[in-house]
Amino acid sequence: MTGKPVAPVLLYDGVCGICNRSVQTILRHDRRGTLRFAALDSDFARAVIERHPELRDVDSMVYVEQPGGPDERVSMRTAAGLDVARYLGGPFRMLLAARIIPARLRDRLYDSFAAARYRFGGRHDTCPLPAPEVRARFLDV
């Protein structure tokens, strides 16, 4: 028996400029208003990583479904991005066509971009504080 659905959580690099802009874009397009967020260095993310040892050295966004529950599932890199597109729905669902590209190739491209993300988008000294109207959707703020 599965538990009551719990809102998904997106773990992201809180000091990455591109990552923060991506979160802001997701917030603008989230019609349901239920996706929550946590920085990769937060207590919440550390607890998820503890439950999923494969995430130990993760330097990627991580999409967490049913967080903390017996059916908790995590995806990272491009799979996490595609899960966000599926969650957002609407025109973002067109991005799901990227699944025809083998995951290893998608993730290699993701890793190459992620390695240079601070050069492209800058780096904050600390995770920026979310706007008051969305702050409740951020865990460990």
Automatic annotation (TrEMBL):
Q: Which InterPro entries match?
A: DCC1-like, DCC_oxidoreductase
Please give one Pfam family short name: DCC1-like
Give the protein's recorded name: DCC1-like thiol-disulfide oxidoreductase family protein
**Origin species:** [Mycobacterium] zoologicum
